Amino acid sequence: MVSVTGLWGLTFIIIWFASVVNWVWEQGFRWPQIRLGMGIYAGIMAVVLLLGGARLVFFPSVSGTIRVGSVTASQTIVIQLRKCLENEDWKCVRRTSDQLFTVLIEDSQQAARAGANIVFWQEYAARVLHSDEQAFIERGRELARQENIYLGMVLFTMTRAYPDEFGENKVIWIAPSGEVIAEYLKSRPVPGETCIAGEGNIPVFHSPYSKIASVICYDMDFPGFVRRAGQAGADLMLVPARDWKEVNLLHSQMAVFRAIENGFSLVRSTDQGVSVACDYQGQILARLDQLTTKERFMIADIPIRGVTTIYSRIGVLFACPNRTA
User: Fold this and answer.
1) What share of the chain has pLDDT > 90, as a percent?
2) Which residue has the higher pLDDT, 128 or 321?
3) Which residues of 116-151 are buried (b: 16+ CB within 10 A; e: fewer)?
4) Does 191 sit behind a cis peptide bond, omega within 30 degrees of 0 on the bond before it?
5) Termini Cα distance of the chain
6) Which terminus of the chain, N or C, has less C-beta within 10 A?
7) Of 289, 204, 185, which Cα lies nearest the Cα of 245?
8) What is the pLDDT of residue 318?
9) What are φ and ψ of residue 69, in 5° steps?
10) How much is the average pLDDT of 132-157?
11) Can you tell me the distance from the alpha carbon of 267 to that of 281, in angstroms, rounded to the nearest whole number?
């Protein structure tokens, strides 16, 4: 149902059930008065369950797979870096940033040697001074060439005026040739987040494996925005993210709904939360809970091809007939 109506239809079915129960109660459970209303609801619910079940059983993903590695940062070094920033000790910031970046490169190399064709990092994985950004990118390009992988470097770049001057929360995609093929700034910063909002142009690029799209964390909470990737025919959505304990499971589950709505598979790499990989039907393929393990990378085999969904074409037409976005 979600692939047809988006979350709107699912929400409608849930709220309608509550209304039917309340109405049956008010009618005193008298069968002659309630049978038509109950029959309509039960019939529609049966159709939803049967068609949804049939899609899962008879139309599984039959495409090949691609191996994706998602990498999270060392929390020990991240804590050190935060202290350097709080003290405005920029020598310490540069030294610790370099140390953190080196570990990210090593973990990415390990993921690549475990067979990953695509490797990307969590949100805020590397925090670097703007003046050092290009040097870090060159190291990423070298890794991509050396390991023959697509690399998603997730950086937070800042000047020495930070936080008075906002930084850039971005993902930079590098091809196996070492060429930078896409750069994306987070378009929907969390309220209070000290980063510049991007223009909202979701990068969708071709690879020999899949048509790949990428957004960052909170962007995935906006169905109409993410639908742009579905309209562009993305097969795979790669999402760097950063959570906290109170929202960790909920936030990853919300992202899975975006995959079902738009017909793309999803890998979400998050710090302090649940990293998850799923196919376009929402079936979980890999899961890593950062709050219960010290593992820093997750490997998943993801379907190469997505599907075209009705929702990606009609948008919120079910909930609001005068709108399609």
Assistant:
1) 84
2) 128
3) bbbbbbbbbbbbbbeeebeebbeebbebbbebebbb
4) no
5) 18
6) C
7) 289
8) 76
9) -110, 130
10) 96
11) 13
